[in-house]
Amino acid sequence: MISKMQINDEELKKKLTPQQYHILRERGTEAPFSGQYVNEHSKGMYTCAVCAQELFSSATKFDSGTGWPSFTDPVNLEHVELREDNEHRTEVACKNCGSHLGHVFDDGPADKGGKRYCINSACLVLNKEQTK
């Protein structure tokens, strides 16, 4: 089990863009089709923009047509936290730092388990040197 790291919000405001801070810490979202990873097809590991926790492999990324990067599952279920949000959706957060990442829905590819992890590009960093 991963323990939550302590985060200093003032330091995060210096490290992140205003959009990243809004999404990651205030549970915002980016406009559809605006994120840098929507049409990204490179191989690699997507990590948390706050703490660098490994979250999603490019091997599970698929084109959902929704306007956000979509994955069939996280690289490790112990790396994400699922919780109900105010709109009765299932929020996806980084288990290491608690940052909001996006939401999970039950409309993903049936042959891959039926889940669609809909994640904001601003929450991710693609490390093209890591693959799983």
From TrEMBL:
A molecular function (GO) term: peptide-methionine (R)-S-oxide reductase activity
This enzyme's EC code(s): 1.8.4.12
A GO term from the CC aspect: cytoplasm
Enzyme class, UniProt record, top EC level: oxidoreductase
SUPFAM superfamilies xrefs: Mss4-like
UniProt keywords, alphabetically: Metal-binding, Oxidoreductase, Zinc
Catalytic activity from the UniProt record: L-methionyl-[protein] + [thioredoxin]-disulfide + H2O = L-methionyl-(R)-S-oxide-[protein] + [thioredoxin]-dithiol
Keyword Lipoprotein: no
Obligatory cofactor(s): Zn(2+)
A Pfam cross-reference name: SelR
InterPro entries: Met_Sox_Rdtase_MsrB (IPR028427), Met_Sox_Rdtase_MsrB_dom (IPR002579), Mss4-like_sf (IPR011057)
Listed GO biological process terms: protein repair; response to oxidative stress
Residue span(s) of domain MsrB: 9-129
Family as reported in the entry's similarity comment: Belongs to the MsrB Met sulfoxide reductase family.
PANTHER family reported in the protein's UniProt record: METHIONINE SULFOXIDE REDUCTASE, METHIONINE-R-SULFOXIDE REDUCTASE B1
Protein name: peptide-methionine (R)-S-oxide reductase
